[in-house]
Amino acid sequence: MRNRRTASLVAMGVAAALLPALTPAASAAAPQLRLAADPLAQYTQQKPSWKRCDAQGPANFECATIKVPLDYGRPDGGKLDVAISRTKATSAEDRHGVLLLNPGGPGGTGLDMPLYLASQLPDSVKKRYDLIGFDPRGVGLSSPVGCGLNDDELDWQRPYKAETFDKDVRRARTVAEKCRKSNGAVLPHLSTRNTARDMDVIRAVLGEKKLSYLGYSYGTYLGAVYTQLFPKRADRFVLDSAVDPERVWRGMIQVWAEGAEPAFTRWTEWTAARNTTYKLGRTPAEVRATFWNLVAGADKKPIPIDGLLLNGDDIRSLRVMFFYVEDAAQTVVLLKEAAEGRAPAPGATLPLRVPPAAPAPSSFARAVPSDNGDAGFWSVVCADTRAWPRDPEQYRRDAIRDKAKYPLYGDFASHIKPCAFWGQGAEPATKVNNTVRALVLQNEWDPQTPLVSGKGMRRALKGSRMVTVLDGLGHGVYGTRSCADKFATAYLVTGRLPVVDVSCRTPAGRKLDGLRLPPSASPAVPGLPAAPGLPGRQDRF
């Protein structure tokens, strides 16, 4: 029993305080004693074999693969691969350490993050840090999981309808059963908590006493969990577009519906003030009525546009567009004209909000299951917490309630999900509540992690500071040339946080560069067929 407890404490990063000091007589055998006393030594003392990631890519972009335990409670058991990458700091004299990067997800690959952020981060940061990318366990080149899901099973964002509810329940159950059959005993260990432990192995393997970190979206929760497990090893942590730790994970999907309603209201106000341009209504109430009449009409007679037939639910599912008021107004005008049988004006197209990502290096054409992103998403979202209801009728009741409360997206967010039938994760959810000095960045109008979510992260990390970009649009802040960039750069360069929380406004007229992350960080929702011009939609954090 004592050995098992010691192994468990070692896995949580506290065993060093329990191990006896070595006597001088034992110094010659110190490496062997450490290996025997520390079950994680076989992992933390690895020496990565760095190689150029891509023969055609930058010479300073190197990759390696390390091993981590499948179960940190049994480190001598199964092992997983974790693929890591790096670009070295550009100044050896100014080097501060390593900056580990995560693009979000769950299920997002991060091996190529040092390349994607090379043009986004300022020179003052790049000269101080080795930029470190990694594919989280189960994702990309890190022992990837797959469930063999077909297109219908990948289409999980569905509206609640009484007549299709039983079919939707069967679909969710099938996804869970396929994933369990394909991955077996691995699934309970594909959790944020274990990925955070993997991050600490990466830190040790790189020979660093502390870890600095830049995580976007889901990556903010991953970073926060690391600060909870390893507070003394967390150096400078930037958490961009933050998840509320108290709402993982069903609550974070439901917050999409909550966040969409104020965005929709703001859009009606903006559009009414420009009625001479869009002719959708002279007051916010009239604009709102125009939209909902369009939805009702499309339910009776789907709207043909860009080779698609869109019903009312398809239109409601485009919640993200309302965060971008001009795009939404143009889209609704075009949909209204199509519903009325009018051809669009010459050159008019539905606006595409998500910018195309830069092509990935050829070395990242991964031989992984085609549904790896979705399998990785459900693996984490379902294993992280035991709070998912098990009774399908609870989802029915919640979907009906939330459609009335949040008409745009409420039933989509609260409808049945595969987690209702998933096996329990190996551990309970992590309670984030500490005083680590992190920096939280948040746009006021973020469709994926709304402002209320960022405030939740700020409450959980009591030693943190938060920078809110007033009128800031989109998902992702640092690297977009917003007013928040200077605060994040100053923190990464000097370690100094703002004295108090800050709200800033990006000067009018400044052209913002869209944040360019790997394609896996912001995938399109599979629910609506892809078509040129449809507003960008996301299904991950």
Count, helices: 19
Class by helix and strand content?
Answer: alpha/beta
Number of strands: 12
Low-confidence stretches: 1-31, 352-363, 522-538
Layout: helices, strands, pairs:
Elements: H1 2-11, H2 30-37, H3 41-44, E1 51-52, E2 62-69, E3 79-87, E4 97-102, H4 113-116, H5 123-126, E5 129-134, H6 151-154, H7 165-183, H8 192-205, E6 211-216, H9 218-229, E7 234-240, H10 250-272, H11 275-278, H12 284-300, E8 303-305, E9 308-310, H13 312-316, H14 325-339, H15 372-383, H16 392-405, H17 410-414, E10 438-445, H18 451-460, E11 465-473, H19 485-494, E12 502-504
Parallel strand pairs: 4-5, 4-6, 6-7, 7-10, 10-11, 11-12
Antiparallel strand pairs: 1-2, 2-3, 3-5, 8-9
Helix pairs in contact: 8-9, 10-12, 10-14, 12-14
What does the model show?
By secondary structure, the protein is an alpha/beta fold. The protein is built from 19 helices and twelve strands. It has helices spanning 2-11, 30-37, 41-44, 113-116, 123-126, 151-154, 165-183, 192-205, 218-229, 250-272, 275-278, 284-300, 312-316, 325-339, 372-383, 392-405, 410-414, 451-460, 485-494; strands spanning 51-52, 62-69, 79-87, 97-102, 129-134, 211-216, 234-240, 303-305, 308-310, 438-445, 465-473, 502-504. The strands form two sheets. The protein has a ten-stranded mixed β-sheet with strand order 1-2-3-5-4-6-7-10-11-12, sandwiched between helices. A two-stranded antiparallel sheet has the order 8-9. Helix 9 links the parallel strand 6 and strand 7 (234-240). Helix 8 (192-205) crosses helix 9 (218-229) and helix 10 (250-272) packs across helix 14. The longest helix has 23 residues, at 250-272. The chain starts with a helix and ends in a 37-residue tail after the last strand. 49% of the residues are buried. The model is unreliable at 1-31, 352-363 and 522-538 (pLDDT under 50).
